[in-house]
Amino acid sequence: VQLVESGGGLVQPGGSLRLSCAASGFTFSSYGMSWYRQGRGKERELVAFAGTIGGGGSTKYADSVKGRFTISRDNAKNTVYLQMNSLNTEDTGVYYCYAFGWGQNYWGQGTQVTVSS
């Protein structure tokens, strides 16, 4: 099983980034997919969740990112995305991809997002 995040980097406040998480080794379409983040000295927190199509395809967001971030998934490509707009310094951290379902859960290695002028 692999979850490989990409798309992180340095961006100025107000800018945008799009994170990708490519999954392999499990039935992607049957798993709920989430993005978490962890800032320096902070606990890891849930940013966004995308359910399975069979489960209604629901999405949920942390209050701090509602209206700015969008999670989406492409089951044909086994990939989940996180579009991040209007970034601010509080969004700085390591962003992790997380898959769960059928009694299993998997984490990616994380990608660094730094919002700074």
Question: What would you say about this model in short?
Answer:
The protein has 117 residues and is an all-beta fold. It has no helices and eleven strands.
Structure report:
The chain has 117 residues and is mostly beta strands. The protein is built from no helices and eleven strands. It has strands at residues 2-6, 9-11, 17-24, 32-38, 45-50, 59-61, 69-74, 79-84, 93-101, 104-107, 111-115. Strands 2, 4, 5, 6, 9, 10 and 11 form a seven-stranded mixed beta sheet that branches. A four-stranded antiparallel beta sheet has the order 1-3-8-7, with no helix packed on it. A hairpin with an 8-residue loop joins strand 5 and strand 6. The chain is globular, with a radius of gyration of 13 Å.
Write the layout of secondary structure elements.
Blueprint (H helix, E strand, L loop, with lengths): L1 E5 L2 E3 L5 E8 L7 E7 L6 E6 L8 E3 L7 E6 L4 E6 L8 E9 L2 E4 L3 E5 L2
Parallel strand pairs: 2-11
Antiparallel strand pairs: 1-3, 3-8, 4-5, 4-9, 5-6, 7-8, 9-10, 9-11
Largest sheet: 7 strands, mixed
Order of helices and strands: EEEEEEEEEEE
Shape: globular
Number of strands: 11
> Helix share of residues?
under 10%
Strand content: over 45%
Average pLDDT over all residues: 97
Give the uncertain stretches in residue-range form: none
> Helical region count?
0
N-to-C CA distance: 37 Å
Structural class: mainly beta
The whole-angstrom Rg is 13 Å
